[in-house]
Design goal:
This protein is an alpha/beta fold. The chain has a single domain, classed as Rossmann fold. It is built from seven helices and five strands; from the N terminus they run βαβαβαβαβααα. It has a five-stranded parallel β-sheet, with helices on both faces. The radius of gyration is 17 Å and the shape is globular. It starts with a strand and ends in a 5-residue tail after the last helix. The structure holds zinc ion. The site of zinc ion has 9 residues, from helix 7.
């Protein structure tokens, strides 16, 4: 794959930054695409831009604010509280179909710049149960996009079966643990690095990092 071109769906968070670092090892040319859907914290986009600049990859923003005309959610509305899903409900940050739409737009962009590979950091293991982040959905969409556009796209999901601790381990194997820890933004309250420490996203991130660091110290494998 070293002679091919790839597009990374990039948010500046832990997962997509780890995917970007992986892609830089795998592909000759890597571009990023970031979606502006009116995130509560515009910092997220600035954070993504900074990381892309630092890694020397192209950065392209797509305006996806139209998804807010379809449904209300806590990522884009200040009057909706960020809450983890309870009793099998989806969390208040859920935007129905978001990943489906984003990946489809990423594919159109990939075709426009001559890239065959699309990388996304979606994860079935400990994500919050979003149906369009599951492996069977991504595989199904891959087939659909190839039929829709007469292309041979390959959608890569390097984090699909990793939990958060294993994602930290993956970053460490890419020699980028500190880079990911310090420069990425996953906190729902827009605080870079270790974040607020309390929102569902920070809690997952912190637990994963602690689990990984403990296992590394103890010499145990995850
Ligand atoms: Zn937080």
């Amino acid at each position: 794959m070293k002679n091919e071109k790839a597009v990374v769906v990039f948010s500046g968070g832990q997962d997509s930054t780890t995917c970007l670092l992986w892609a830089l090892e795998q592909f000759k040319e890597v571009a990023t695409v970031t979606f502006d859907y009116g995130q509560r914290h515009y910092d997220e986009i600035e954070c993504a831009r900074k990381i892309a600049d630092e890694l020397g990859v192209s950065f392209h923003i797509l305006d996806m604010k139209l998804i807010n005309q379809l449904s209300a959610n806590a990522l884009t509305r200040h009057d909706i509280e960020v809450k983890a899903g309870e009793n099998g409900e989806l969390p208040s940050t859920f935007v129905p179909g978001r990943n489906h739409l984003f990946l489809s737009f990423a594919a159109v962009y990939a075709q426009a710049i001559g890239a065959r590979h699309i990388i996304t950091g979606v994860c079935e293991t400990d994500f919050s149960g979003y149906p369009d982040c599951r492996d069977n959905f991504v595989k199904s969409l891959n087939v659909t996009l190839n039929l829709a556009m007469d292309e041979q796209f390959v959608i890569h999901t390097p984090l699909m079966w990793l939990n958060k601790a294993e994602t930290w381990k993956f970053a460490d194997q890419l020699n980028a643990l500190d880079f990911v820890k310090e420069k990425t933004l996953t906190c729902y309250h827009g605080i870079r690095g270790d974040g607020c420490g309390e929102c569902p996203s920070c809690v997952l991130r912190k637990q994963g990092l602690n689990t990984y660091l403990e296992s590394k110290q103890g010499g145990a494998s995850l």
